């Protein structure tokens, strides 16, 4: 009886967490550069049940033999194993701002150990030290002319330096070069992660490495090709229709587990208040 309660409760918790994940995806469907989260639900290891007994053999001394009868497997519940971001390319759309940049994937190598496809990111200076990474190219110039993101993090060049511009009248070429008055000023910093699943996803579309070390530059990386487009942004890669379908499925699964839990509760109520009186 109680094992069933634990199984149902674990299912409700897993579906609730999946619902929260899908709700967050839908809330960021219009956030530039947002990468949708994906979840994996797995079951705990099954337990093999068997009945142990003895068989009496009518002999002169009386012989008892151990008898084990296999009943079957018992599932002990499910859990949300991990949450990983989907790093596929979002749609590119045009804006009217010079400080809006879109990263466009070309070819990305596949990591031999993890079979994960590599990904590229804009480089930002994190206030706590080291670098943060993002696909959201919705940048602006602060009061001192530094290129920053919406949180005020400084955008870095390929040399790891802050990018300070005289004004917003500049050009970004497809290869990442920034030109001011027809002269090359600097190169926009782009980092490459061979296995982006190892990155830690933070708020506001930011990513960091586990050990806070900096990712290598994406320029001149073997097998990596990409381009950039000024006055464009990369949209979210959330599939709203699929997310809504998955959300309804998770909600129905939660409801089904809830009804089973209510049935267990009624059975226990009868066992205590009715059978116990006999």
Automatic annotation (TrEMBL):
One of its GO terms (cellular component) is bacterial-type flagellum basal body. Keywords: Bacterial flagellum, Cell projection, Cilium, Flagellum. Its main location: other. Signal peptide: none annotated. Residues 5-35 form the Flagellar basal body rod protein N-terminal domain. PANTHER family: FLAGELLAR BASAL-BODY ROD PROTEIN FLGG (PTHR30435:SF19), FLAGELLAR PROTEIN (PTHR30435). Belongs to the flagella basal body rod proteins family. This is Flagellar hook-basal body protein.
